[in-house]
Amino acid sequence: MARKKYFNTLADAPQPLTVVIGRRVRFEEVDSIGMVWHGRYPSYFEDGRIAFGDTYGLAYSTFVQHRVMAPIAQMHFDFKSPLRFDEQTTIETSLHWNDAMRLDFSYIIRNSNDNIAATGYTVQLLTEPDGTVLFAPPDWIIRFRRKWRAGFQDGQK
To answer: How far apart are CA 84 and CA 67, in angstroms?
Structure first.
């Protein structure tokens, strides 16, 4: 079965930027039947976004420094199989190109057997601190997008 595609790709868009991190399921994250409780998955997505930001120069502190907020406007999960306590997992986080003032992230969470446990996406709008949606990119976002189009390398900020 093919994996669901969450975002359409423009013909001239660069490839998504991707980061993969490892994570261990903690006891506090499982429910009474030993599976990760569904309400914990947003924090797994956040772990992926933090690693992505650290790798590509889009850390939360960068947004704060430039007085740009990025609240989540949409979040979606597709659960495939349960994760269990003490299991080693991976979270693959990809940012997909979008010309609008938003961040389109997709996620693949794999279990210790490298099988997909969950997939999903988030959409974050770029706003002023008061919540007004930005319609034009600030200079630092323009620079980030130029690096991406030029072939942004993993680990390059």
So the answer is: 39
